[in-house]
Amino acid sequence: MAIKLAAVFLMGTAVGVLYRIPRHLLLYSSFTGAVVWLIYYIAITSGANVIFGAFLGSVAVGFLSEFLARLLKKPTTIFVIPGFLPLVPGREAYTAMRYMVEGQYGQGVATAMQTMLTGGAIAFGIFLSATVYRLVINYRVAKANDTGKS
């Protein structure tokens, strides 16, 4: 597991370099990817299905990215992109297409459905966590402004 975690961290660094993330932020963006993959891995090994594991990981991406963006005063996408890439079901998409080419349409459709559901879970998890985080922050700011007026 430690080797996989190190590989995910290095993958996050490589993606950060590819997308020209500033050097001083590469550690944070790679850390986001490693933490997210660890959450996904723990969920899968605990018996959760791949879709739910991807959802949990993407919720972590959203919260961690929003937190780091506020802390470091940088755009959220710097942390989101390297964070969600370990969750992307690329192998499953390839397998679905291979099944279709080989004429195993039932397997192909089933694998494609799981791939699409996983992608949807990733998108919904990031959306949900980012929205909740921003609502909480805005509520706290509004509450602080209201108490200052009294």
Automatic annotation (TrEMBL):
One Pfam family this sequence matches: ThrE_2
Bilayer-spanning residue ranges: 36-64, 116-136
Primary subcellular site in the record, as a coarse category: membrane
One Gene Ontology cellular component: plasma membrane
Keywords from the UniProt entry: Cell inner membrane, Cell membrane, Membrane, Transmembrane, Transmembrane helix
UniProt topology in membrane: Multi-pass membrane protein
Domain of life: Bacteria
Name of the molecule in the record: Threonine/Serine exporter ThrE domain-containing protein
Source organism of this protein record: Thermosinus carboxydivorans Nor1
